[in-house]
Amino acid sequence: MERHAATLYHALAAKGHEIHVFTVPSDRMPHIDIHQGNLHVYFAANDHGSVNCSLAFEIFNTINANGQFDYVHTESVSLPHWRAKMVPHVAVTWHGIWYEIMHSKLFEELVFNSQETIPKPVSELHEAMPRLVDEIRFFPSYTQHICISKSAGEVLVNIYQLPQRNVHVILNGVDETKFVHDPESGTRFRKKHGIPINASIVMGVAGRLVRDKGHPLLHEAFSKITKTNTGVYLLVAGSGPWGKRYAELGSNVKVLGALEPSELSEFYNAIDVFVNPTLRPQGLDLTLMEAMHCGKPVLTPNYPSIVGSVVVNRSYGYTFSPNVESFVEALKSVIKDGAKVLKNEGIACRQHALSMFTATKMADAYERFFLCMKNDRFCHYPLPTDC
């Protein structure tokens, strides 16, 4: 969500719009406010580094004393629903909703608690239902709803019972100037991290190395695959408790740690296929789009948000059900197809990403949406030509 917001607001400011952001520093350390051209960032943190809503609104009201703001946009519940009722022209972008989070809890229950014969009296899955009901009740407090996947948009209309006219789909986009197809940088990256020239397939995974991101699934599935496929390698980019466990799998796994932003494109270019084993079907992971921009197919769970908006057909990659058996079968398909097929799929992925998941396209869509909020008497959104 943070990277999405930074990309979007910089792009809108570059288009000439006056953008004011009320947030906290990601490192939870004191920072002075930022004023760069049309982009203004105000930090309103409490003693623990979290958002101080009262302070944020004090700053907001001071700047907006003369009704300067044409609209207010919030990333998920950053603007609490009880305050959203008091602000006109509010739009919210949902990066994850509790209906999807319930699916996450379900998958985690099936994967991690499958050996328990007596279920726990109260599990996270059981606790999720009241949260979902509460969310459905307060969602009408926001005027307009933007979803980052088609499936989430359908849920808001069909399950949350919001009017179709108030629900919109704008897919995430990533900076197409930073994530580019560059085979030479990939070759250098492989050499730097000791991937042999004769490796048959190089897979890559990136992100936080924690349980709910599906790393127990990948760890077990990859350990099974390498028993009969010694030429397959895995590059693991990120930090977290599963880093040490990956290192125990032997020389076919290279644990890289957290990469600098400038290294991410090189990482994607170094692999043949990007693997995202996540058990969290909410929202859309930007790493899938970044890898596609670098010309790489993806291997990912078959969640509605992903197959409905990103891996919309087989030519863009491989999908599996979130369990070890299905994951292993998908890995076997990748290995059977080989590097040449993966390269051709990567070309199709890059073309798809450039047509759907760019920061430019995302900013254009938000710009038109916000202009429609400001001039709703004369503007119709979406147009019949919108996909």
Tell me the β content.
5-15%
**CATH homologous superfamily of the largest domain, by name?**
Glycogen Phosphorylase B
Q: What letter string, H or E per element, gives the SSE order?
A: HEEEHEHEHHEHEHEHEHEHEHEHEHH
Tell how many strands the DSSP assignment holds.
13
Query: If classified by CATH, what would the architecture of the largest domain be?
Result: 3-Layer(aba) Sandwich
Termini separation: 23 Å
The number of helical runs is 14
Q: C-alpha Rg, in Å? A: 22 Å
Shape, per Cα inertia axes: globular
Largest sheet: 6 strands, parallel
CATH topology title of the largest domain: Rossmann fold
In terms of structural class, how would the helical and strand content be classed?
alpha/beta
Count of separate structural domains: 2
Low-pLDDT ranges: none
Helix content: 40-55%
Strand order, largest beta sheet: 10-9-8-11-12-13
CATH class descriptor name of the largest domain: Alpha Beta
Determine the mean pLDDT. 90
Keywords: Glycosyltransferase, Transferase
Organism: Gossypium barbadense
GO molecular function: glycosyltransferase activity
Protein name: Glycosyltransferase subfamily 4-like N-terminal domain-containing protein
